[in-house]
Amino acid sequence: MTHTAQGTIPANTLMGDVLPSPQSSPLESATHLFVSLSDLVQESIFYHPEIGQHLDSLSEADKSSLKAIVGEQSIDDHFVSTLVSRIESSILPQHKQVRVCLSDADSYAYTALIGGAIEKPEVNPVIGVRGVSRFASVEHTHSFELECQVIKQLRDKGIDIEIVVPFVRALSDAAMIIDRLAVQGLPRGLGGLKVLYCCDAPSSVLLADKLLQYFDGLVVNTGNLTQLTLGVDIHNQALEALFNPEHEAVLMLLSQAAKAAVHANKPCVVYCQNLAHYPKMQETLADLESVQVLAGM
């Protein structure tokens, strides 16, 4: 995010910071913080969250790399304490809301980590096992538990963390994740805990009125929404010209999601990378009511 980007959108829009971010310093006017656990894992952890369950199958090179990172700590303790420290140190007094998004990375991103061979190959990871489908799978139960531990430790420190659930594709996903969070000691509503969900796919926008009965707000991830609305993989260079967050269909879905949130009297957060380069997106945001914006670089 940049001050330039901030100046291109309505003055009454509530701007927020993103963690991690290439910005050297947070926005002076940021009122909320959005934390991506997936990005933090890639930036600060470097190894696959499930690596501790597969030590016997690791190569010698991976074992050596893991040892160099973890040191004398257990893998789980290192994973949780590192993320807790990164998040806690990034929270400023001006951040009225701190939202932590559970991992939304796909299997392709996970394979780049130390121990990435754990991942089962997928023909099309973009529309593969990610978000709720990952949290609910037997293979990734442990990493979900670790992410929940991060949130619980932050809340135990008195930080009012809100949870953001990515890739909620259906109403059954909503019921499932609320139950699984409760099993992990994070029941929605207890101690004021709020749980939001990400609009990554068109279905999560089209069902917003019903999904918001399970959640306390929504986050529109314009990057994922653009990919899945247009059927364009952002990592496929041959299709790069077709990736367009300002496509009419994407802007229509964004507006629909925001209006559903207003109707439910719940917050709508819009995350758009490179917002300063998208004037039509800025115009759409100007027409929307009570939108919180994350404008990543």
TrEMBL record:
It comes from the Bacteria. The keyword Nucleotide-binding applies. Residues 111-288 form the PEP-utilising enzyme C-terminal domain. Residues 1-11 have a biased composition (Polar residues). Signal peptide: none annotated. Residues 1-23 are annotated as: Disordered. InterPro entries: PEP_synth (IPR006319), PEP_util_C (IPR000121), Pyrv/PenolPyrv_kinase-like_dom (IPR015813), Pyrv_kinase-like_dom_sf (IPR040442). Keywords: ATP-binding, Metal-binding, Nucleotide-binding. The keyword Phosphoprotein does not apply. Belongs to the PEP-utilizing enzyme family. This is PEP-binding protein. It comes from Vibrio rumoiensis.
